[in-house]
Amino acid sequence: MNWEGVTGLTTINETHDAVKPVGFKRVEGGKQVYVGSVIPEM
Amino acid sequence: MKKLAVLMSLMVILGLAGSALAEEPIRIGVYLPLTGQNAFGGQLERDGILMAHEERPEVLGRKVEVIVVDNKSDKVEAANAVVRLIEKEKVHAILGTYGSSLAMAGGEVSEKAGIPVLGTSCTNPLVTQGKKYYFRACYIDPLQGSAAAKFAMDLLGTKKAAILKDVAQDYSVGLAAYFKRAFEAAGGEVVADLNYQSGDQDFTAQLTTVIAKEPGVLFIPSYFAEGAIIIKQARELGGTFHIMGADAMDNPDMITIGGKDIEGFVYTTFPYAPDMPNMSEMARPSRKTGRSSSPIRIPTPTRPSATTPTCSSSTPSNGPAAPIPRPSPRPWARR
C-alpha cells in the first residue's frame, strides 16, 4: 500500500509497517534544526 | 512531530473504514495518553488528528466523526480505551497510540475484534508483529537504531558509545538494543549500557559511570521530559560527550526544560521539518490554519532490508560534511 502524505510517500510493507527515511534534527541556537535524513537500504 | 504523522494517518484510516454503510458517518476512534506520563506526546497527536479533521471533515461525501479517548499512559487503560471505542462508540477504525507499550496493549483488543488500527508513532516492531489488523504510519526501531548508530560513527566521529535507557518502556529498551547491535556491528564499542525507570529525576549515579567510561556519544532513547533532564544533569556533571536521542525527544518543550545544556543535542525523528525544502501540497492547508506544525515533503524512500537494517548513506542528505565537534566543557560543571 502506498499513499502520498504530508511527510512524503509512505509505503506499508508486508509486516504492516511504514517504510520511511529516518530524519535527524539538532538543537542549534535554541531551535530544532533539521539536519537531513538517512534512507533505509533495500 | 506527532501532528504531522497523524494528519497523514487519518487519510489512510478513512480508506480502511470505507466499507461502512453509506448513510452512516465514518467513526474514527482515537486512543492516546492525554494524561499521565506520556501526555505531552498524546496531546500533540490529538491536536494533529483534530487539525486533520477540521480541514477534511468529510471523505467520499460522508461525514467523519472523531472520538478521542484518554488511555492515561497506562497499559490496562489502553486496553480499556480500545474496548470502549469498539463496544460503546462503535468505531469503524482506530488511530493510536503514542507509546509502543500502550499500542501493544490496545492491539490485543482490536485484533480480537477485527477492527483496523493505524499506529501513529509507536515504533517498536512488536506492535504490528503477528497482527492482522494493526498497521503503522511511522518507521520501526530497527531502522531508527541503525540510522542513529551510523550517524554517531560517521558524523559524530566516535566508536565509543554509552547507552542510558528506560527499562519500564518497551520503546526505550527495544531502541537501545537496536542501536547497540548496529553500533557494534559497525565496529563500535558500547562502553556502558545503563538503566533508569520512568519517573526517575536523579541520574547522577548512571551519568557518573558514563563519564568515567569516556564515551564519544551517549545514546538516550528517552521520552523528552526525562531525556532533557538527563542531558542537563550530564552537562552539569561535566560530561562533554555528544548526546543523541530519538523520535520521542522531538518536542519543543525539551528545549524549555534543558535550556542551554541541550544545545548540540542530536536526535532521530520523522522526516519532516519546517525548514525542509519541497513542501508537500498536502501540508499547505495546515499552514493556512496558522497552527504550529508545518509538514514538509521529503524524497521518496526506498524499502528497508527485511533482516538487518542498514543505511544506504552514512551522510544525511543535506547534512554537514565534517564531524560535529563535541560540546565544550562547562567551567561551572560539578566534578
Most extensive interface, residues per chain? A-B, 40 and 72 residues
User: Quick check: average pLDDT of chain B?
Assistant: 82
Portion of residues within helices of chain A = under 10%
Terminus-to-terminus distance of chain A: 17 Å
Main beta-sheet annotation of chain A: 3 strands, antiparallel
**By helix and strand content of chain A, what is the structural category?**
mainly beta
Strand content of chain A: over 45%
Total domain count of chain B: 2
The counted number of beta strands of chain A is 5
Structural class of chain B: alpha/beta
**What would you call the quaternary organization?**
heterodimer
Q: Over all CA atoms, what is the radius of gyration of chain A?
A: 13 Å
Low-confidence stretches of chain A: none
Order of helices and strands of chain B: HEHEEHEHEEHEHEHEHEHEH
The main sheet of chain A orders its strands as 1-2-3
- Total number of helices of chain B: 10
Q: What best-fitting shape of chain B do the alpha-carbon axes yield?
A: elongated
**What is the number of helical segments of chain A per DSSP (H or I, 4+ residues)?**
0
Unreliable stretches of chain B (pLDDT < 50, length at least 5) are 288-321, 330-335
> Roughly what percent helix of chain B?
25-40%
Walk me through the structure.
The complex is a heterodimer of chains A (42) and B (335). By secondary structure, chain A is an all-beta fold. In chain A, 0% of the residues lie in helices and 62% in strands. In chain A, a hairpin with a 2-residue loop joins β4 (22-28) and β5. The radius of gyration of chain A is 13 Å and the shape is elongated. The model of chain A has no long low-confidence stretch (mean pLDDT 82). Chain B has 335 residues and is an alpha/beta fold. Chain B contains ten helices and eleven strands. Chain B has a six-stranded mixed β-sheet, sandwiched between helices. Chain B is elongated, with a radius of gyration of 20 Å. The relative contact order of chain B is 0.12. Mean pLDDT of chain B is 82; it is low at 288-321 and 330-335.
